[in-house]
Amino acid sequence: MSKTLNIGIASYAEIKARTLRIARGELKPRAGDPKVWFPSLESLAKVLSESNRELLALIDARNPRSLQELSDASGRATSNLSRTLKTMSRYGLVVLEVHPGRRLAPKVLYSRFKLEMPIGLDGASNTAKRRNRTVAHAG
Q: Which is more confident, 127 or 37?
């Protein structure tokens, strides 16, 4: 599989405002825009830590039919896997398929991640702010 997920970093307020603009028809997302948003680089780093990326690679390679099978292959406790995979599922990184007997089988949806984040802390780049000030003072 070679599918890339575009990820963005923005505050909750910025994510909410963007979502509302899309819902009102004021903004049309472009094809390359992020599909998944994290509120901080730290939260992204927790979800896509080295050990969690190794877990995604293991799932992709082994295609486990249950969390127990994944636990056996990874050496991680089933309860730990369940929490981690539910978090990844909320972000759209994996899907948890329900099989007979309520067994959950994780499936990896992406093989690569591409990150987009602003240089500024409030979501606007310093360059854009300087450009706007320059235009405002160019009178």
A: 37
Q: For the chain, how big is the Rg over CA atoms in Å?
A: 19
The CATH number for 8's domain is 1.10.10.10
**Nearest Cα to 83, choosing from 64, 111, 104?**
104
User: Could you tell me the residue range of the domain that residue 130 belongs to?
Assistant: 4-137
In the chain, how many domains are there?
1
Task: Give 3-state DSSP helix, strand, coil % of the chain, rounded to 5.
Answer: 50, 20, 30
Q: How far apart are the first and last CA of the chain?
A: 54
pLDDT at position 133 over 60: no
Give the global pTM. 0.78
Helices (runs of H) and strands (runs of E) counted in the chain: 6, 5
Which pLDDT does position 119 carry in this prediction?
Answer: 81
CB-based contact 123:15 (threshold 8 Å):
no
Which residue shows structure tokens 């890339």? 4
DSSP assignment, residue 105?
A: E
Q: Which residues contact 86 (CB under 8 A, 6 or more apart)?
A: 96
CA 1, chain centre distance (Å): 18
